[in-house]
Write a structure and sequence with these properties.
Layout: E1 7-11, H1 14-26, E2 32-35, E3 48-52, H2 53-58, E4 66-69, H3 77-83, E5 93-95, H4 118-123, E6 130-133, E7 145-146, E8 149-150, H5 152-159, H6 162-175, E9 181-184, H7 188-200, E10 205-208, H8 214-226, E11 231-234, E12 248-251, H9 258-266, E13 278-282, H10 286-290, E14 322-323, E15 330-331, H11 374-391, H12 395-406, H13 413-416, H14 425-444
Parallel strand pairs: 1-3, 1-4, 2-3, 4-5, 6-13, 9-11, 9-12, 10-11, 12-13
Antiparallel strand pairs: 7-8, 14-15
């Protein structure tokens, strides 16, 4: 700008046009023109042009010495074509994103510069601290995975049940502290069901989706800011361009997408006057599936090429969190004390033990057999996957060992969603015992 060079700042949503203009003016940059419909600030002579991606796709683009793409992970086709246009080959493009992990993003950008991670921004006071409760989650064992994500129709059937929706409302009443809340549903039917149940409980709730007219959406937002509306339920809408003081997130949409998950929780991480923390109520199982948002980050852009089994570009994949037995808060796996209720987590013995009583020999009475929980099975499968990757084995090896341990295959979606987790000594000893038993069996059969 000091050299009279024009800068284009492209945003993917109409709501972000006004937010960006306000942010620039707040920093003393008033020399702004807007490229979006017949906006009142339309002025092609200004050195900074805030443009909607949609308008740029339909118009001749203004000349510029620098282009900044906001929410770069959205990867609009028109933006990709623009970046590869030979006429713009000498113009630098800078992409901004809190989740720059989109598949193929590395085909359009050369380098990933990580200015700060979520945990660092929270520690520095730029983002709000948060606490997560995971009181319930749907049974997703019959929900298929299509192209790396849950099948939306089957997911809706699994989540849009009266008992689950009722539990969402009951948990908010107990844990939500009547805070301004965004609630995320699977689809329109699910989100509207959630809204209806909140209304029946006497909570002022409204619904928004992609088809809500802009004027009506703004009226809903005004009522939310004024405290008249306490909860906004939505589906696939309020993940970007949300300029609201949100102090509670209800996540009722299961996902396998780290980007969608982090963007969802991120809607509540903005700081505000009087805001001590964000409360997250996870009814989707996303934290147990993907981890805490402060633990999710990648070191490289995705080049679009298929990944090898077990390959991960995270600097150090943190173990998935666990749930506090006392209050259902999500806590880091290695944490000794729950920050929510102060409960001290007792270290678990690596040796299996079952309660029983002494019985007379020959009486025919036996101690009750230990029955592993679904969470213990999932944790064990994650440990097997870690060992498989460590030894260069296929994922099938982990499945076979799981079957050897429990007598059935790990076919349910929740178990199979377990990521590689550093194994305990107990698990490593079990694997070693199976190898020894296998070797002894071969020797007994005269094999070498």
């Amino acid at each position: 700008m000091e050299r009279d060079h024009r800068v284009i700042f492209a945003v993917p949503a109409l709501s972000l046009v006004e937010q960006t203009v306000s942010a620039f003016c707040g920093e003393g940059l008033g020399c702004i023109g807007v490229v979006q419909a017949d906006h009142v600030l339309t002025d092609p002579s200004q050195p900074v042009q805030v443009c909607s991606v949609q308008s740029l796709a339909r118009r001749e683009k203004p000349e510029a010495a620098l282009v900044i793409i906001d929410e770069a992970h959205r990867m609009f086709a028109s933006v990709n074509e623009w970046m590869t246009d030979p006429e713009w080959a000498n113009v630098p493009f800078i992409g901004l994103s809190a989740t720059p992990w989109a598949r193929g993003l590395g085909k359009y950008y050369d380098d990933l510069i990580i200015a700060a991670r979520t945990a660092e921004l929270i520690e520095a006071g730029y983002l709000s601290p948060f606490i997560v409760f995971a009181p319930s989650e749907p049974d997703l064992s019959d929900v298929a995975t299509i192209a790396g994500e849950f099948h939306q129709g089957e997911l809706s059937d699994a989540c849009n049940k009266s008992t689950l929706v009722g539990d969402v409302v009951a948990t908010w009443l107990a844990r939500g502290e009547k805070r301004p809340t965004l609630c995320y549903g699977v689809d329109r039917a699910h989100a509207e069901h959630l809204q209806q149940r909140f209304l029946e409980a006497g909570v002022a709730a409204e619904f928004v989706d992609a088809y809500t007219p802009v004027e009506e959406r703004e009226r809903i937002f005004r009522r939310f800011r004024a405290g008249v509306t306490k909860i906004i339920t939505n589906c696939a809408t309020l993940t970007t361009g949300v300029d609201l003081d949100v102090r509670c997130i209800v996540d009722a949409k299961p996902t396998k997408s780290e980007m969608l998950f982090v963007q969802t929780i991120g809607r509540g991480l903005r700081t505000a006057s009087g805001k001590d923390k964000l409360i997250v109520l996870d009814h989707a199982g996303n934290h147990l599936r993907l981890g805490l948002v402060t633990d999710i980050h990648h070191e490289h852009l995705d080049d679009g090429k298929p990944k090898k089994a077990g390959e991960d570009d995270r600097e150090r994949k943190a173990p998935l969190p666990r749930i506090c037995d006392g209050c259902s808060a999500v806590m880091p796996r290695k944490a000794a004390v729950c920050e929510a209720c102060g409960a001290v987590r007792e270290a678990k013995c690596e040796v299996d033990a079952v309660d029983g009583e002494l019985v007379e020999l020959g009486s025919g009475t036996r101690a009750e057999k230990w029955a592993p929980t679904a969470s213990e099975k999932r944790e064990f499968f994650g440990e097997l996957r870690f060992i498989a990757a460590e030894r260069g084995y296929s994922d099938g090896w982990a499945s076979h060992k799981f079957r050897e341990k429990f007598g059935h295959w790990p076919n349910d979606a929740w178990t199979r969603s377990a990521g590689p987790t550093a194994p305990s000594l107990k698990t490593r000893n079990w694997i070693r015992s199976r190898a020894i038993a296998f070797a002894k069996g071969r020797r007994a059969n005269g094999e070498t």
